[in-house]
Design brief:
Radius of gyration: 49 Å
Structural class: alpha+beta
Order of helices and strands: HHHEEEEEE
Number of strands: 6
Oligomer: single chain
Largest sheet: 3 strands, antiparallel
Distance between the termini: 146 Å
Strand content: 5-15%
Helix content: 55-70%
């Protein structure tokens, strides 16, 4: 009887140990499962943060690319315009240097003597001046029309203001020196007298 009680106690102890071992395994599995869940959650949070960071970086790079493309387009347009302007106004310096020569030609022609022996010489000078004027006109040089026009400081330089009964105030009454325009650019403003 005593032995059967010991056997029963031993069996109960074995069962208790087996039950405790099973509970430990279940607890261990449960803990591991919870650990995996927290690791998964952490990975998901890190992945979301990483995704947001990468998306922000991609957006920043896209904006930089768009700005670089816009800058390049502006640079290309500006360079093209500079090339066109250079071609359009390539002769500006030469023509600017020739304007005083034209002034001197006109002064010389205004004072040519009326001597019969110099008549053919005067006609030759007139032809040379006309030829020079035609060449400059074909290059885009034009003379400003000033007398009777309203004063415009972009095209005219007022050196005198005079009283005039014939003209309203601010109208050019006399041109003292011709003004010239090359295509659409003022090379030299006209010196004028303006009614006051």
């Amino acid at each position: 009887l005593f032995r059967s009680q010991e056997n029963n106690n031993a069996e109960e102890q074995v069962e208790v140990h087996e039950t405790e071992a099973a509970e430990t395994v279940v607890d261990s599995e449960h803990t591991e499962a919870n650990g995996d869940t927290s690791e998964q959650t952490t990975e998901q949070v890190v992945s979301k943060e990483e995704l947001d960071r990468v998306q922000a970086h991609a957006d920043d790079q896209t904006q930089r690319l768009l700005r670089a493309q816009a800058d390049f387009d502006n640079f290309r347009r500006r360079t093209q315009k500079e090339k066109e302007d250079l071609a359009k106004y390539a002769s500006t310096q030469l023509i600017t240097d020739l304007i005083p020569v034209i002034d001197n030609f006109e002064r010389a022609m205004a004072t040519k003597p009326d001597h019969p022996e110099l008549e053919s010489f005067g006609k030759g000078i007139d032809m040379i001046f006309r030829q020079l004027s035609d060449v400059l006109k074909s290059a885009g040089l034009t003379t400003m029309e000033t007398v009777g026009q309203p004063f415009n400081p972009e095209f005219h330089q007022a050196v005198m203001q005079v009283e005039s009964d014939e003209h309203e105030e601010g109208i050019i009454v006399e041109e003292l020196q011709k003004g010239y325009v090359l295509k659409d650019k003022v090379l030299r403003p006209a010196m004028v007298k303006v009614s006051g």
